[in-house]
Known about the structure:
By secondary structure, the protein is mainly α. It has helices spanning 8-26, 36-45, 49-54, 62-74, 78-103, 106-118, 120-126, 132-151, 156-170, 176-192, 198-226, 236-249, 258-262, 264-270, 272-296, 298-317, 333-347, 354-376, 386-396, 412-418, 431-437, 441-449, 464-472; strands at residues 403-406, 425-427, 452-457, 474-481, 487-493. Helix 15 (272-296) crosses helix 18 (354-376).
Amino acid sequence: MKTLNPNWRDILWVVCILGVAVILRSLWLGRESLWLDEAYSWWITNGSWGRATAGEPTNPPLYFVMLRIWIQFTGSSEAGLRSLSILGSLGSVYLVYLLGLELFDIRIARIGAAYQAVSTFQIAYAQEARCFAWLVFWLLLASYSLLRNWRRSGGMGWMALYFVAATLSLYTHFIAIFFLASHALISLWWWWRGRISRDQFLMHTGAGIAAGLAFLPWLAQIVKASAGGGQNRRYLLLKLPQTYFSFLFGDSLIPLDEAAVRDITGTLRENATVLMAVAIIAALVAPFAVRSAKRWEERWEFCLELAVLPVLVVFAVSFRVMILDERYVQGAAPFAYLLAAGAIMEAWQPEAGWRRWVLVGGYTALLGLSLGQYYFSTGRYGKEQWREVTQKLEAQADATRDLVLFEEGYVHYPYDYYQRANLTYWKLYGKPQADLLAGDKATLNRLKAARRVWYVRAYAMNGKILDILDGQLERKTYEQFPKGHGIEVIEYSRKGQESE
């Protein structure tokens, strides 16, 4: 097996694919509001260097340090904050091409890179001021370095690059631990099967151990944070199919938010046509995927292992500590794209007849629909509408007489980013929340003393605070901002008070 040397036509293909990727990732970059996590990225990097280097309880500081430097040149606008992620995402498109070239052939490399370029799942995180686009880049670079070492005996330079990429991935997000552990399991399996030499196995083991040792200063904090129990464990069994659906079609083909999960029957019924098309495509692609597996053997297996193993390990761990989220494991998605590209190339043969047109045409139509809804939908798809919420509050609330309530202590960050009127607000977290739930008289009197109370409800875990406010005050208006996790703004006044 020999890696092809690209000619000028191949280079032109890559340039075109990267050009499409740039356009799609730059399109309307600042149109939508920062959502909660992006606003937290802004808060971390907008402060001192100490705050940036401290990172988050579960997220190491590399991305925040990079963003802190980046915004010195781009500013802290929505587009400025998000643009750093575009670079990492473009690098990932090119690395998918290199992996396809190394594992398969030039045609599969092009299709895999093109899939990475147009996937709304990848575009969404390339247009987000969070670490995930860079996490994918570092993990792909580590995987490519590992593969190059296995293809080139004695490749100490590639293992040095593996150490660098693995270490940087660990300092980008803790979930990299599971991808690097998957590398170790695959390496052991391949050595046992005689596919790689003992020296190659030992070099990779040494590089992996070195990366782990380099991460030790942060590991203790990660372990301590994980003792808190991780994310909410609801819907764990649905997370696995949702993850691969997101990989292949993005989150904008059908709703994949919490509202959709709560009403699974209704979601399936409302999107029956799209889901039937997906089922037909899956049935058509399956035999061609089998044919591709037989053609490429261990190279196809390498992609399958990296597309599945990290996700399954994270899924298994989530039964104890909930950490499975499709954005965390998106480093597995590019390998799914290469597997799909291999199946498509098997289908693109004259003997496939009508099936190749239905398969390729249908697949393209689904990806196009996902892109169309990602960019043009005015419904549930997109980021939380904190800009609109803040504009509503500042247009209608009085800075001296009204009170704004945020149910959780972290929800105020996007409001802080957009606010200009310095409205008085409470963060109902810790003692203030406990006092309100306990019916503390002073807390209730302060609520009743305000001319109006504006309750901003987002990421609410229960309805107890809502029940208390409905019992103590009179509800006047209600407005919902449905995108992302959704935000509710409820206006209250003292009972018997006329609306102004």
